[in-house]
Amino acid sequence: MPKRRASAVATVIAAAAIVIVAGQAPGWLAARADAAPAEAVPSRVRDPWLWQATVGQHPVGPASVLFFTAHTRYFESTGVVVGRAGGYRLLPISVGEQHGLLSSDGRWYLRPGTGSLVDLRTGDERPAHRPGLRPLAWSPHGGQVLFTRDNDDTVIAYGPDNQQLDDPSKPDDLLIVDPWSGAERVIPVGTFASHSRAAWSPDGSLLAVTGRADPTAEASERQRLAVIDPVGGGVRWQVELGEQRQLAGRGAWSPDGRRIALLTYDGCARCADTAELLRRSWRIEYLDAATGRPVDGVTPVRGSAVELVAWRNGEPVVERQSQEADHAKRHTVLAAVSAHGGEQVLLTAPGGVSDVEVPGDLLARAAYGGPEPRPSPFAAPPWWYAALAVPPLLVVLALARRRHPLGARAGCDHGGSADPPDARPR
User: Fold this and answer.
1) What's residue 272's pLDDT?
2) Residues 6 or more apart from 99 whose CB is under 8 A from it?
3) pLDDT, tens digit, 9 for 90 and up, residues 312-351
4) Separation CA 265–CA 160 (nearest Å)
């Protein structure tokens, strides 16, 4: 084989090798960088690299934590999955899409409104139930999800006499759905303008649901709490909470099933600005789960309380935020809080994190204090490696061109018949 042709073949082989390595390197290098699985909630999570791969590009497996931040290459709210082996992957969400829920085993991410589930082990997303539903809480054993459905008419039309034909304030529905088969049933819970929060009892036999009570009072933030039997469909009891109390969150029911926690604040109900909002002081109060009557005991919460997510040794575990006015500097933590005002921080997130999700199985086992994984710079999408491979490829091509310049090839193409200067006839 002529040297020129052999060099061209070698160049093509080198280019193909670079492309193959670029496509496979993320999996190889990320696999080396990720640690052994740790079945515990990390003590700290960090911002991902801007080039971090998504769960669809390189799945990371079941999550130990999912948090949402704009500190990604998308520059808007994005999910960041931290796998149980320590790897970080991005979970992109659409503009305006609400934050979804992790399944109890951390394998599935439920997208609100779209009717789809993301399998974090494979990165695949598939339609599972009908769209237009907003998830409130997974059942304790992970087989069902409580959803709310907005029934308001979004377009208002008027008749010939200028009468309004549509209703923008219809009561919402409460549904229990099998998220895989799509089977659903409506739960009779009385009239709610909207449902804001819900919590399953520890054994899954009862539901606590809260939301705005009056469909016609659009500006009202007054909340009603109802405890219902989802099988029998009956309302056990309900109470009016007012504007400054709300169900504490998906973990509001105490582990023994005897109390239901409320988040209560002192301060403005409809605040004029962020500074006034951040001056609210928060605490946890309790209701008797059998009657709805208040019971003794108050637990103060530092900063701005977001949600009660679980319990540890009888103490509430709360997601809360620090009170900096600049959202980029505001820190979100999970902390176990005591009635004496103390707290133990269990998970710390970087500044700018707007929400944290932890799978129910880790919360139920109070599995905290796991390793503090760092995002691997090698866990990048294939295009990033391909971009890095382009400069070496250009260098290889340039060297090949230099070794076999066009003039040399042209001389060879004429069969080397050019006479040397001394051999020319005089």
Assistant:
1) 87
2) 68, 77, 79, 93, 112, 354, 355, 357
3) 999 999 999 999 989 889 999 999 999 999 999 999 999 9
4) 48
| Angle, vertex CA 28, rays to CA 23 and CA 30, nearest 5 | 105
User: One-letter amino acid identity for 426?
Assistant: R
Residue ranges of alpha helices (H) inside 320-371 are 360-364
Place of tokens 């080396």: 32
Q: Is 275 helix (H, G, I), strand (E, B) or coil?
A: helix
Q: Distance (Å, rounded) from C-alpha 411 to C-alpha 417?
A: 8
Both structure tokens of 272:
């004029």
Percent of the chain past pLDDT 90, that is, above it, reads 60
Tokens 């149980």 -> residue:
84
Q: Give the Cα separation of 64 and 158 in Å (integer).
A: 51
Residue type, 71: H
Least confident of 36-45, 158-167, 192-201, 356-365: 158-167
- Selection from 352, 425, 426, 383 nearest residue 78 by Cα: 352
Evaluate the CA torsion angle 384, 102, 315, 246 in order and state its sign.
Answer: positive
* pLDDT reported for residue 425: 47
Return the structure tokens found at 393. Answer: 């490829």
Which residue's structure tokens are 């009779």? 188
Structural contact between residues 27 and 34, judged by C-beta atoms closer than 8 angstroms: no
